[in-house]
Each structure stands twice: as structure tokens, then as C-alpha cells.
Amino acid sequence: MAKITLNGREIEAPDGAPLVEVIKNAGVYISNLCYIDDLPPYAGCRTCLVEIEGAPTLQLSCTAKVAEGMVVRTDSAQAAASRQAVLSLILSYHSDRCLTCHRVVKCKPGDTCLRDSVVTHRCVTCSKNYRCELQTTCEMVQMAGYEPWEGEERTFYELEQPEADHANPFLEFDPQMCIICTRCVRACDQLRHTGAITLAGRGFSTRIEFGAGGAVHDSNCDFCGACIDVCPTATLMEHPNKWAATETERWVSTTCTSCSVGCSISLGVRKGRGVIVRPDTTANPVSHRQLCVRGRFGYDAVKPSQRLSQPLVRRNGPDPVGATWDEALELTAARLAEIREKHGPAAIGFLGSPLATNEENYLLQKIARAVVGTPNVDSSAGPVARAACESLRRAFGSEVLPADMTQLARSKTLLVIAEDLESSHNVAALRCKDAVVNNGARLVVVAARRGELCDFADVWLQPRPGEEAATVAALADALRGEAAAGVAEATALLAAARDDESWRPLSVVYALPHLGAAEAGAITAAAANVAIAALGQEAAGSLFVLPQEANVWGMRDAGATGEYLPGYRPADDGAARKTVEQFWGAPVPATTGLTFEQMVSNGKLKALVVLNDNPLFFAPATARVRESLAGLELLAVIDSLPTDTANAAHVVLPDTGPFGKEGTVTSADRRVLRLHAATLPQDEAQPAWRILGELGSRLAQRLNTGELRLNYAGPAEIMDEIAQLVPLYANATYKEMEPGAQQPLDGLGPRKAELQPVPATPAAAQGYALTTGRGLYTSYEGAAVHSPEADRLHREECVDLNPADAKALGVSDGGQVTLRANGNELTLRARVTAAVQHRMLYVPLYLDGGAVTALFADGQATVPVEVVAASR
Ligand code: SF4
Ligand code: SF4
Ligand code: SF4
Ligand code: SF4
Ligand code: FES
Hints:
By secondary structure, the chain is of the alpha/beta class. The chain contains 26 helices and 34 strands. The strands form nine sheets. A seven-stranded mixed sheet has the order 14-13-26-25-24-15-16. The structure holds iron/sulfur cluster (SF4) (4 copies) and FE2/S2 (inorganic) cluster (FES). Residues 171, 187-188, 192, 194, 196-197, 221-227 line the site of one iron/sulfur cluster. The site of one iron/sulfur cluster (SF4) has 14 residues, from helix 5.
């Protein structure tokens, strides 16, 4: 640390740190219109001038580095005057009417300008008014009334301004507002490794361009919004709620629940509605300053009016009708009690969800086990997670791994096994790119389909769909010195990490699929083998198994899975069960429960309570699932949206949605992350924890369950209980919780590191093989209600087809094809792309509310399909 004097005050600062950051951190204002914290300085705007004792001229504080004894003044008359002069040059290319106006302090929103009427562009007509860094800079540098060019024509108002792109659904680009600070270029390039924005032209024609200078949509921008965050003007703006967000009333820290990375977001709220999202830089070291398009814009995927607003019950007719809470809850409790009486508790099932909070999943399984007395608790996300976790248990004696995703960016070697990590877990993919670009890491990708990460890979192994496990197993074998064909180059990179510390940390990343439990289990086993072969007993700390949905691990931790009570106590182990029974003061069933597949196929179930799950969207063999739901005597669904599953229900209990409730979710690397209620509930909707508490209490009364606790003042009390029962959550009580901290594994972590045989998966299809996965752009909430705008860019509403196959089938790009498999058909637009290999087809899972799952049978990750060209 060095001691420096800043405006007469002595402060300590890291030796060599950028002076501008030290000034800002000391709470002293300094204009810095082109600087981005933590990135090398660009030194283009010249607004950060300061006086440094001993220097012959004023210095740029963004290029100056802290040195012992430095004496710095930001407030000298000369520095202040120079900053004004520099800023006035910048303003000559900007719509500056309000910025330099002597009466700006008197102007209120909506006032008519009393200065001139010919100029329409000014702050009061700008969507960035009151949240604009250039505007603040002008205020702080006291530009009001500073007009050295008075009487002269102003360049900005003289030149014809370039066209704005207001058509994009996510990002608006209005180049006439640009001050060419290049922050956006550097953010896209250096923070996102995307390079969608360039600095084009020279002199007067210098400008910012997307791609080759066309529409934003035609560039390779993936709408992460990082450039919007750094743009100091209104040039780059969010399209949704652009105007509403000028009057953001408060900011609420919460968590994106669109994948298991669990990025922390700050949601700007106005009149009870979300209107803007920024990364919450304080709460989560993995996401830190970055989000993806889903985290940035997912809050706006459905409008409040599209959410369920009152309880619905199916009385006599086929259509559900509005009901009071009392009627809906009484009906549900009464029907469950009757069915239990008639068919026994095992005829009742409960589906939790990775879209629900830890507290809600916990409460659901408590009601199932301790009130109803059924062990049948699972989720449509259960089968894949279970298969992967069984492999982890064989390898490490535990499914709870200590891997920390902040390691990804620090890695020197990475093995990524994922269909398309960029799309499924965007910010995790970004951290892998960080490692390659900033840290010189070597990257091996195993993917049947090309994703953006392949462009960063040293080796891309491209197995046939369905042969991924065999490929990863071959890598593990080769690392252990056994002969393996076709993986020599990749093995050499992994072997270097094993043998040479300078190529570590090694990170092995596997993104779980939605479908295909057996294959997920096999790939997890193979990935664990690779990690163990390379790192031995340290392997578990470097293996990252990333579930698709937000809270898969939390759902399992909380016991919303048939084989484990909370805290991974085996349901069929007497001693473990006793602990839970004593804690709850109620008996729980002595067996493991039906799995999700069994619940929707064996006809034994008569009633099902569904919490935020949507099997008609996520589960394969949709026709069979629909039939089995239709055969139930009671289907009760708690959800905030009229999903297909909710629409099939006898009773629908409206939840408040992820931005309307308190709770926690547990990320892929086991950080317990808070959700805070930011938005107002839609009419009568209630958070699911309260619905469950009410339903559980009414049921307990009917079933005389005794003193079991089911009513809580809020999720904080539920978490207090979880923290006592599940050691992983010991530090997660709301009072003690450290935002974004990883769980303490406390006896539940890895106990060994053992190689295991990798089960053979079915041979790859000879004909066309269809796979599915998570697209980047389609929101779950939009897709779940079949919104035509679920994919606002309409980029993912098609089947990907290889050019050679398209030619053989006589289909051109944009033509229609029909896919047939397992007795079902799907007709959709073809996109001809080399991203899929020969004889491979890919349809995004979220297209039209999970329409493609109808083509898959239980357990299939890849389906042989017949392809018929419907039109060219
Ligand atoms: S970008 Fe900022 S400074 Fe420019 S007109 Fe808009 S609010 Fe004013
Ligand atoms: S939104 Fe993201 S990808 Fe698009 S230009 Fe901005 S930084 Fe680049
Ligand atoms: S678009 Fe914004 S961030 Fe990019 S150069 Fe212009 S003003 Fe700077
Ligand atoms: S990476 Fe995942 S958690 Fe992060 S913003 Fe994107 S969807 Fe949300
Ligand atoms: S911030 Fe120093 S020159 Fe722009």
C-alpha cells in the first residue's frame, strides 16, 4: 500500500493502482467518461484531468498510477477549468441544449423549454434523463452557463444525424447520442469476448457500428447488455420499458432463476412492476458485473396481466372458474383427504420444482411426508438430476461437491462437456472464455453441436449425438494410459494439467441436459473419471456439474426427491428417518417414493399436487403424461402462470412469480442466493410458501396430524428450520446469511475419489438423430404460456439442419419440415446451418412451450426421427 495525499487528505491506496479508481473509491468525484473499472485505460475523453505535484502538466488520472507520496488535487482551479474546456469539446458533438443551459436547475420534467423551440433533442426529451452519466458529469463539472461557443453554429445541430435502430426488441441504438468514448466496444470485446461493436470511420465520420454497420439484429450481439451498462449516454438503451425506467422508484437485489448459474440482479421497480435490470455487483462473485439476455430481460417476458390473478376451480363444466382462496384451499384439502381415505396415502404424489425456492420445496415435501404420509415426492427435473447424482455418489461418496465457479475464470485448462454452454449457462461459458482470453487457458470442448465456445477451443471433439459419454470415457481411459482412439490431442492437454502445475487449475464442466437420464448418468460418471484421473483426491473440487434449471440442487437438498429426506437422509434408513421424525414431531413414511416417471405412468396415482413444475412442458412422452394427468381424481397446481399443466388442473392456486417473492435458491456451485419480493402480486396471487402453509394446515386439521408446524410468518422462519435440519444451510438463516456465499459442506461433502465403469449408452441412431436443449433467447415464462414473443428475436423457432442433409431432402433455409418420432409429428421451419453435423437435427426445447418433448420417449436424450420435407 502507498500513502498519497488527495485534495489535502492523506489516504492509503494499492501501489500501482489506477489513480482514477482510487479517487472514486475515496468518495471524491472525478469525471471519467471513457474509463471502465478494471480494464486498461483508453484515455480518449480527457475529462479525468488532475493536478499531480511535480508533474509539468495536468495528468489523466486514468493512466496515472498510484505511487508512494503522490500529492493529487482534483479541485484546483486549473484542473476544473481544463475539465470544463475538454467537456465543452465533447458537447459540441452532442445534443447539449439542457447540459449547458443557465436555467437547467429550474426545469422540471414536462416543462416547456423557454430557451428555444427549434431544437427537439435535449435531456428533457431523452429517455436517459436523470440517469445519464454525461448529464451528471456536466452537473458536477458545472457546465450550466459555460458556453464558450456562444453565437457559433454547433456541429451537432448542423450535421445530419445517423439513423437510430429502435426496432430491436432488446437493445436500442441511437448513434446521434454517441460521444465516441468506446466503452461499449471495449466492454463487448474485453468483458464479453464477443466483439459485436466496432469503431468505424475516421475524423468527423468516426462512429460506433454493430457488425458490418447494419442493424443490431444482424450483428453477432447476444444482448447481454454489458455495453448498455457502461454507455454514459442514451446511445445504447434497453428497449423494454425505456421510458418507464426513467422513473425507477427503487432497486431490489434478487436472483435470476433462468439457469443454475444464479446470477445476482438488481431489479428496478416502478409502481410495483419491474422496469429495468442491472447486474448486482455486490452479491455474487461468479456473475459479478455480467448477466445474459435472459437475466437482463427475463423480468419482462410476460406481462403482469398474463399471470394468474385468482384461484381457479373446475366445478361442473370443463373450464376452470374463479373461486375464493377459502373455496379453492378447502376443496383441495377436502379432495386430498378423501382420496387418502379411499386409496391410501401412496395414491397421492407431490411435484416440487427447481423453479421454486428452497423454502417452498422444503414445505412441499414436509406436507407430503408428515401430513399426507406419502413418500411420493419428485419433479420432472428429478430423473436427470438423480441419475447424475448417483454417478457422483459412486465417485465421491456424495453428490454435494465443493467446486466453486469463480475457479472457471482462473483455470489454466478446461474440459467443457455441453451441448451449447453459451446458450444453456451463459455466464459460466463467459467465465470459461475469460480463462482462455485473459489467462491463456487451454480449452477442450466435447459437443455434438457447434456452440460459440467451440470458437475458443484448442480442441473440439464432436461425437455423434448420443456418443458423448463414450468420448469422455475415452478421454479418462487415455489419461490413465489405456489405448483410446481419436482423442490424443485433447488427452495431451489434460495430461499436461495432470503432470504440470502450471496448467492448473483444471476445471471439468458438464452441463446436464433436460432429457435422457441414463445418458446424463453415464456422462457424469465419465466426467468424474476424467477429473479423478487428472487430479486424484482433489477431483471433486474441480468438477462442475451444472443443472439446467435454477434450483435443482436446492430442491434435492430440501428433500423434494423420493429417496432422500431433507439433508440427504435416506428415506429407507430407520435412524436417519427418526432424526427427521423427532425434529418434526410426526411420523414419515418408511420407504422411498415413486419417481416422476412412475407417477405419470403406472396409473396408481389418484391425486397430484404440483408446485411450479410443468411436466407438460418439460417431460418426454407428453401424450402419455397428459393422459395420466387427465386420469387423476385431483390435479392441484400452484403456479403464477396459466401453463399447460395448470390448464389441465382441477384447482389452480396462483403464485406470485419469481420476482414477487422472498426465498432462496441454491446455484450450481452451491451458493445460497436470495430472492427478494420486488414486484406486487397480481391481484389475489400469494407466494407459494404461504399457499403451502395454508393448504398444509387445512389438511393437517382434517387428518388430525397433531402439532406439526406448517404455518410460518415468512420464508425466513422456514429457512431457520431448514438450517437446523440440513447442515448445508447452517449459515443460510436470513439474519446470518452472507450474500452469495457457498454452502459449508459440513460432513456432506466428498469422502472418496473412485473411478467407476461408464455404462454403455444406446448406439447412436443411423438415420437422423434429433436432440434438444436450452436456447439462449427464449424465456421459460413466455414459452410456458405459448407467447408468440417468448423468443423475441424469433431466432430459435426452427429445426437446425445440416446443409448436406437439406440438399438431400430438397429443403431450403426457411422451408417447412415435418419430424416424426415415437408416433408423434412436429412441423416447423428449417434453418440450414453447419452448426449441426450430418444427420443431426436440433430443436430448442422451449419452442412453442416444449412442443418437441412429444417426440421423445422416456429416458431418451437423442431420438431417431423420420424427416419429411413439407415445403421447400
Ligand atoms: S444522453 Fe444524457 S446528456 Fe444526452 S440528451 Fe440524453 S440525458 Fe441529456
Ligand atoms: S449487448 Fe453484449 S454482446 Fe451485444 S453489443 Fe452489447 S456487450 Fe456486445
Ligand atoms: S455508444 Fe455509448 S459507450 Fe459506445 S462509444 Fe458511444 S457513448 Fe460511448
Ligand atoms: S447465466 Fe443463467 S442465471 Fe445468469 S443471467 Fe443468464 S440465465 Fe440468468
Ligand atoms: S477517463 Fe481518463 S481519458 Fe477518459
